[in-house]
Write a structure and sequence with these properties.
Helix content is 38%, strand content 19%. By secondary structure, the protein is of the alpha+beta class. A five-stranded mixed β-sheet has the order 5-6-1-7-8. Strand 7, helix 6 and strand 8 form a beta-alpha-beta unit. The N and C termini lie far apart (50 Å).
């Protein structure tokens, strides 16, 4: 059948662009969606703000220091969802296999060329043009023969850009790429790779599968395939997210509940922002603590239906209180949402629910 034809479409600064579209006074100005000057985290930043180093998931106080003229705007997720539905309707005109990753990005398998456009590149161009015409927003797209490369490609010429990585070009593209750009390689993994002398895709490609598995566990097999430009994951229209979370490690151990609750605030904001972006509704909240002796403890609470924002924060703080006072210092704290799926169709509910399902 030949190589697959995969498109990854990623909206440009989606939340901020919607706000600038709807409020002309914000156009050309550095805008941060979410948070505030005093607390919270940035959900999204306009390109004008990004020039100052403002990024999503950044604490608002840090963003304000980097960009004193930053304008904070309250998120309007109902508007973002409505625009996202417009965009997904366009996607479905070109592919039956559409895998949304969040409100602002998705994979499309256009191997069958549903509309007879002629090529994956032409399909991507047509989709971008229709998005601009119908929503007034710009999107970037990556076209390649697998999901790994398509996602990398969509980020290559942002904003409002298109990048095509053919099978002939794939290996060289991956070889020249810094490993930090690989999807799935976070800052800590990139640091570990650097200590091992692995800085680029070519360095990663030179490592054996056995070595990468020994160093990175199950992820080693993925890194090995990615370094060779290989990715056989299908585009799943029915994909269900398993979990979504965030955690932070402290420079110094914290033993007081007040300090831990304070650190939990940023994590709550980050996780909920990501859940809103993914349009994900969860029924289980899990708290994780790692103590100074590296012992890990988790506590969870599940509900009959999706938990709302207030419920998520209240449960997270209650689970933490249940573990205090702590016997020794805490070096890491994290929160996770899980239990997605059919419950997403139910109405969101608060805390007047059954007792905890377990710990």
């Amino acid at each position: 059948m030949g190589p697959r034809k995969i498109i990854h479409v990623d909206m440009d600064a989606f939340y901020a662009s919607v706000e600038q579209r709807d409020d002309p006074s914000l156009r050309g100005r550095p805008v941060a969606v979410g948070g505030s000057r005093a607390r919270g985290v940035v959900a999204a930043a306009s390109y004008e703000a990004r020039r100052f180093g403002v990024r999503s998931a950044m604490p608002s106080v840090t963003a304000q220091r980097r960009c004193p003229d930053l304008v904070f705007v309250k998120p309007r997720f109902e508007v973002y969802r409505a625009v996202s539905q417009q965009i997904r309707a366009i996607f479905r005109d070109y592919a039956d296999a559409v895998e949304p990753l969040s409100l602002d990005e998705a994979y499309l398998d256009v191997s069958l060329d549903k509309r007879g456009v002629g090529s994956a590149t032409a399909i991507a161009e047509e989709i971008r043009a229709r998005i601009r015409e119908q929503t007034g927003l710009t999107a970037s797209a990556g076209v390649s023969y697998n999901k790994f490369l398509a996602k990398l490609a969509s980020d290559q010429n942002k904003p409002d850009g298109l990048c095509v990585i053919t099978p002939a070009r794939g290996p060289a593209f991956v070889a020249a790429l810094p490993v930090a750009r690989f999807h799935g390689v976070g800052p800590r993994t990139a640091e570990k790779m650097a200590r091992l002398g692995i800085h680029t895709g070519a360095d990663l490609c030179a490592q054996s599968l056995a070595f990468l598995t020994e160093q990175f566990g199950k992820s080693g097999a993925y890194y090995h395939r990615a370094a060779h430009g290989e990715d056989d994951r299908p585009v799943r229209a029915d994909g269900i997210r398993k979990s979504l979370g965030a955690e932070t490690t402290f420079f110094e151990d914290i033993a007081e509940e007040a300090g831990l609750q304070n650190r939990l605030t940023g994590i709550i904001e980050e996780v909920w922002t990501r859940a809103e972006k993914a349009d994900a509704h969860a029924r289980t909240v899990t708290l994780k603590l790692k103590y100074s002796d590296f012992r890990i403890v988790t506590r969870a609470r599940s509900f009959a239906g999706p938990v709302d924002r207030a419920g998520f924060e209240a449960v997270g703080r209650a689970l933490l209180s249940g573990l205090c006072p702590v016997e020794r210092g805490v070096r890491l704290i994290g929160l996770t949402l899980s239990g997605f799926g059919e419950a997403a169709e139910a109405a969101q509910i608060g805390l007047d629910l059954p007792p905890p399902s377990g710990a």
